[in-house]
Structures are given as structure tokens and as C-alpha cells.
Amino acid sequence: MMPIEEEVKVLSRVEILEPLSEEDLRGLLRRSRDIHLESGETFFTPEDTSEKLFILKKGRVRIFKTSDGRQLTLAEIDAGTIFGEMALTAQRLRGSYAQAIEPSILISMSRADLEHIIEEKPQVGNRLIYLLSERLASYESRMEDLSLKEVPARLANLILLLSEGEGVKTRQDIKIPHHYTHERLGTMIGANREAVTRAFGLLQDEGAVELMRRLIHIKDMDALRRAAGYPYPQDIIP
After folding, report:
1. Which of 77, 103, 194, 227 makes a 20 to 30 Å CA pair with 16?
2. Same domain for 141 and 171?
3. Of 145, 167, 183, which closes a domain?
4. Contact, 137 vs 111, CB < 8 A?
């Protein structure tokens, strides 16, 4: 069990819930039941037609689709993130699977819960619109990469995204703190493990990245950006 103070702190980091007071968040927690997941456990499938939003309180979750026996990872979700299937919000898991990458705890929010919160705090609705716009732009960018770029460029772009989302700056470089196998990276860029291994080798030869203790380190950000298809610094949108 997580201490209530820690639970409130996690929910306060969820973008759309920031306008809620501590008492509001405590009320949401009281109305919600924890869902405990083991590593590798799938908790949402294409057959699930219920309208739910999930809030990940602890752990890490991936959203993926399958095609011709291969998996394509659409997103990896960290604690403090909201996601799910609800027509009201255009949040869609339909046709997708949701699986815990590590032991995780989440809660679900019904359509009635969300409607009540928006009625009480209209700012939540405004934040939700902004969040959905951001995610849609990110999704469109990823689909463009998958259709137009070669594997090395797609891998370089993915590593750039990982560095923005979870990178840790050290004295020498930027470290991605989670371990990503080549197979796992492949599911995120639509490539097989062998193609990812070759692409990673090219990025290492160019001095852009290095693998140390099974973790990716970015050694030269400009080289990585060029490999991703951004030849000039001004092409990078801050």
C-alpha cells in the first residue's frame, strides 16, 4: 500500500488534475479501487469495450498493437500519467493492448467521475483539451517517421524522444535510465531486433550514442539530431 500522502502527490502530477485541491484528490482516491498488476500482466485488450480512464500511480505500462504477429508499441506510460478508452475525451485504446512492464498500481475513472470533476473544475476540461492536442501531434509525428524514415533515423528520433521524457544529464553525457532491449526498441519504431542492432551500431560509429551497463548514453546530441533527420539546430522545435 502507498501512503495516502504519496498517492496525493502522484495524482497532483497528473496534468489534467493539477487544478484539484488535496481534498479533491483524496476524495477521488476514496472513490477509486487500486488495481495491482504484475510485470507482464495485460489488463486491457481489444475486446474490452468499457469506457475507462486509467491513472498510473506506480510502475510503468506500455500500450501496443499487434499486426501479422508483430507488436508495435504506441506509448510507454510512467507514473502520474492518465490514459484510457473514452469517447468523451477522444482517449482511445480501442484495438490496443495495455500491459504492465513492471509491477504497477493504477486506478480507473468512469465517465461519470470525469464529467463530475469537469463540472466542478472547468479548468480540468481545458487542460484535457491541451493534453489531447499534444498527444495527437506526437502520434502524427511518429506515424510520419514510420512511413518516411529509414530505421537508423527512426531509432535516432526515438532516442531523442526518450531523452526529452526521461533523460538524466551526467557530467559526460545524457543517460536514459530505463533499460531498453533492442527487441523492445524495435516494437517502438516498427523494426525487427536485427535491424535495430545494425542501426544502433551505426549511431555508435557516428559517436552519437554508447551502450554502457545496458543503458543508452547520448554522447553527441548534434550527431544524434543529424541522424534523426534534423541537419540544422534551427530545425529542432524547443
Report:
1. 103
2. no
3. 145
4. no
Q: Cell numbers for 80, please give them.
A: 502520474
The total of structural domains in the chain comes to 2
Distance set, CA 17 to CA 22, 44, 107, 136, 153 (Å) = 10, 23, 14, 20, 36
Average pLDDT per run of 10 along the chain, which is 238 residues long?
Answer: 85 88 90 92 87 90 86 87 69 80 92 87 86 73 74 93 90 93 92 95 96 94 92 48
Are the C-beta atoms of 179 and 187 separated by less than 8 Å? Answer: no
Query: Measured between alpha carbons, how far is 216 from 219 in angstroms, rounded to an integer?
Result: 9
pTM: 0.73
Do the beta carbons of residue 203 and residue 209 sit within 8 Å? yes
CA angle 167, 171, 172 (to 5 degrees): 80
Q: Is 52 helix (H, G, I), strand (E, B) or coil?
A: strand
**Among residues 90, 101, 174, 173, which one has the least CA distance to residue 130?**
90
Cβ–Cβ contacts within 10 Å for residue 177, how many? 10
Do 116 and 94 fall into the same domain?
Answer: yes
CATH number at residue 212: 1.10.10.10
